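Narrative of activities, Objective 1.

The group set out to show that a structural description can be obtained from nothing but a protein's sequence at a throughput compatible with the screening campaign. Below is one input-output pair from the validation batch, recorded exactly as produced.
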Amino acid sequence: MLLDEVGELPLSLQVKLLRVLQERSVRAVGATQETPVDVRLLAATNRDIEADVQAGKFRQDLYYRLNVIRLVLPPLRDRREDIPLLAERFVRRFAEEMGKDVLGLTPDALRSLEVHSFPGNVREHENVIERAVALAGARSIGLGDLPPEISGLPLATAPALLSLPPEGCQLDDVMSEVERRL
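Output recorded for this entry:
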């Protein structure tokens, strides 16, 4: 079981999680009996848990229960060699999911990805590629398929599905326009 962003758990839930880990059982809401659980647990966070333990924001006993084998994975900006590998994997996955014949990225698009800092880490990279596959009009993702903050192209050059007027609009009219363009 993966506990993503475990550092964000409030103290009240940390107590309950600790009990589950110690007792190896859970009680469903409304149930009267405990159900045994046998899971391997992975916990992930981007927080400095040691600092949170010192500040009283994370239970020390839970920290030691979870910190059996620690893996430190640097952010994507510190492992630029992974960017092309992840991009290739994401392109294959999203092209298959969307039923599109997109095979990869142009060299310029790949270079733009490699120099981007990815403050949102791998999730941002994945989102960028999903968007690019969705917008790609060719078999290769080009600079114009990437967001302007990555491609370096002016906003007017980047493809846009729609723009909404500041005074508002009718949803049916907007959807009709988007469908017509697509």
